[in-house]
Amino acid sequence: MKFIEHDGLIFIPITLGYNSKIYQVTDCILDTGSAGTVIDVDLIEFNPKIPGILKRLYGIGGHQDVVAQQVGFIKIENCRLENILVEFGDIKNSYGIKGILGTNLLRFMNFYLNFNQREIEFFLNE
Questions:
Q1: For a pLDDT cut of 90, what percent of the chain falls above it?
Q2: Where residue 63 falls among pLDDT bands split at 50, 70, 90?
Q3: Among 27, 67, 81, 119, which is least packed, fewest CB within 10 Å?
Q4: Model-level pTM?
Q5: Comparing C-alpha atoms, which of 102, 100, 104 is closest to residue 92?
């Protein structure tokens, strides 16, 4: 798949299965420095009745509180991972991005990155 590079960051689209609905989330940052996967809460119909964990994210710009909930699936290209913990917060207004794909998700995948051709290929760990 082609990726977009902006300000040195790699942006890719994902598909998210949450609360029996499917969402297309464009412009997610591939971030090997982030422990968690975070999606902007305004991109989904957030359900506060789903059990969750309140967490605090820390970054260069300060901190932000998020709610972590288990989602049905996340799909990147042909790789589909089920029952992944995703953190939902106000990252679009705070940081101008729609999502961050962190190591809690990436640890189950391998990927091949060709930066010169702006291509990335994902494979599930076997």
A1: 79
A2: confident
A3: 119
A4: 0.90
A5: 100
Give the Cα separation of 26 and 15 in Å (integer): 9
Token digits for 94?
């705070």
C-alpha closest to that of 84 among 108, 48, 112: 108
Residue 37 has pLDDT above 90, yes or no: yes
- Token pair, residue 66, equals 């998020």
Residue 99: name the closest of 39, 32, 37, 17 by CA.
39
**Residue-wise DSSP of the chain:** -B-EEETTEEEEEEEEEETTEEEEEEEEEE-TT-SS-EEEGGGS---TTS--EEEEEEETTEEEEEEEEEEEEEEETTEEEEEEEEEEE-HHHHHS-SEEE-HHHHTTEEEEEETTTTEEEEEE--
The set of residues, in sequence order, having a beta carbon less than 8 Å from that of 43 and lying 6+ positions away, is: 23, 25, 92, 98, 99
Rounded Cα–Cα distance for residues 119 and 107 (Å): 20
Q: Residue 98: name the closest of 46, 17, 28 by CA.
A: 28
> CA-CA distance, 48 to 31, in Å (whole number)?
27
